[in-house]
Amino acid sequence: MGYVDWEFAKTTGRTLVPAGPVVSPAEARAEVEAIRSAARAAREPVAETARMHTPPDAPDALVVDRATWIAVNADSMSALLDPAVDAIVEKRGVVPGAAAQVVGGKVTGAEAGALLAFMASKVLGQYDIAPDGTPSLLLVAPNLMATARELDVDPADFRAWVCMHEETHRVQFTANPWLREHLVAEARHLAIDLAPDQERLQEIASRVTERLPELFSEGGTGLAELFATPEQREQLARLTAVMSLLEGHADVVMDDVGPAHIPSVAEIRRKFTERRKGAGAPDRLLRRLLGLEAKMRQYRDGAAFVRGVQAEVGVEGFNAVWTSPETLPMPQEIADPTAWVRRVHA
């Protein structure tokens, strides 16, 4: 029996997620086909700009609604975290009884479902690495429609712009198959290490009040800070550096491809950046608590790293970053591209 009831998480997420834009069936079908077309059109220019190529028979992107995004991500979270939870229970040497597992599974399932519901209305697209499953590129149709309307930008250009970013993630992983296994292993290892024992739980509980201002501060990494020892913060920093690379590289490719293929790319970038900065106060606080705001820094810091390296050694020299885990940037190198160039291209 699992310690998280993932089916209950899906049900909770579907119940809590807000409805998307109101459209007719014909409008919905047209939007789905337009997104699929934009995703297919992004493949060649992204591959040429990134100078990385993947098998030509790659499946088309999956255009999904919010409920389907929740279901897919619940399955991926289950595949990623369940082995880690089993390892944590084994390490502690105490196995909860069947009744406790049922109750606990519902509680944690509800918590996971609530988080997925929050994210499902925000995410435009995602390359789902699907631990133990089949990876796929997801594009969330209602969110693409809603965001284009909110920003008041050309819908076709906005679809193309988002697809360029998400297609870059697909290329990153499919051109470098080791990267998926590496990230899954690192995430599972970190999840096991971050789980506090009973003694640390009591220590954390006693410090929650005094740490609340830090948790809600701008740029924090959220609740994970409560659990992390200095060694674990170092692990978090390494994983964050990789995520900064992935997000920053996708932003750089998207913006490099954009001018030749997306007439209104400058307007879209300007309005989208302003939207990130202008999130409402409750939304911003929740993002900080969950550590999601740190993801926004990853775009900026990662893009600066990518452009800094490319300025020194070109795109082909930068692509050495995809060679192995050892050539991924270390945390300090994200802010110092020259240090990465010296280490990798010495």
From TrEMBL:
It comes from the Bacteria. It comes from Phycicoccus sonneratiae. Gene3D superfamilies: Zincin-like metallopeptidase, N-terminal domain. This is Zinc-dependent metalloprotease. Keywords: Hydrolase, Metalloprotease, Protease. One of its GO terms (molecular function) is metallopeptidase activity. Transmembrane segments: none annotated. Pfam families: Zincin_2. The keyword Hydrolase applies. InterPro entries: CHP03883_F420-assoc, Zinicin_2, Zinicin_2_N.
